[in-house]
Design goal:
The protein is an alpha+beta fold. The protein has 6 helices and 8 strands, in the order H-H-H-E-E-H-E-E-H-E-E-E-E-H.
Length: 213
């Protein structure tokens, strides 16, 4: 799971526990987990400002599949992880190339008459390249009609009384895509820890002392 590493100093935390030494692991794990969940909430709130989110996948993916996750601390393992299980989110955080081996990646264009009407639209299966190529009767094709050096999926339109025949580019075909780092996961989590750890630590200490046997 992609997760930033943020450390906190627990010396003051331990001093506050006083005679309740046995409660230190419990109080520490509670404070760590509360801070991890605060971090996850902050990351979830920030997704829409960084990404064009067409579904709830990034935020609410299942534990087995993906999404923003929290691996909780225990009394024996006093650390937690918050981040994403999705491999592609690592590239969004640190940047890099996304390579497509064996076949080109079809990148849909946005606009009227194109696979996506708006940047937030989903590309419906009926508008996928394979479906368009199968059902168009030859009106949709793969090629480089203007010799630009780049392949694409094109739609061919017959002439009308008011307009000559024309072509419309539907998809660019790419074998690699350059991705710039744009997901500030480390900065977000670091800021949350700085703001919320003292509050959560005090609350956890009070709870541990109040519930001590």
């Amino acid at each position: 799971m992609l997760s930033p590493h943020v450390k906190v100093d627990d010396k003051a935390f331990r001093r506050q526990m006083g005679h309740c030494v046995k409660q230190i692991p419990y109080a520490t794990s509670k404070a760590v987990n509360d801070t991890a969940w605060d971090s996850r909430k902050a990351l979830a709130r920030g997704l829409s400002s960084v990404f064009t989110t067409r579904t709830k996948w990034l935020d609410k993916g299942s534990a087995e599949e993906g999404g923003l996750r929290v691996e909780k601390a225990t009394k024996k393992t006093l650390w937690a992880e918050v981040g994403s299980r999705d491999p592609f989110m690592r590239t969004q955080a640190v940047g890099g190339e996304r390579l497509h081996k064996g076949q080109m990646q079809a990148v849909p264009l946005v606009g009227k008459g194109r696979p996506r009407a708006t940047s937030r639209s989903l590309t419906r299966p009926s508008r996928w390249p394979g479906a368009l190529l199968r059902k168009s009767g030859g009106k949709t094709f793969i090629g480089d009609p203007f010799k630009s050096g780049k392949q694409g999926v094109w739609a061919r339109f017959a002439p009308t009384r008011k307009r000559k025949g024309w072509l419309r580019l539907l998809y660019n075909l790419e074998n690699k895509i350059e991705i710039k780092a744009r997901w500030p996961i480390k900065q977000t989590v670091t800021a949350v820890v700085a703001a919320r750890w003292p509050v959560n630590a005090i609350a956890a200490i009070k709870h541990a002392i109040d519930t001590a046997r």
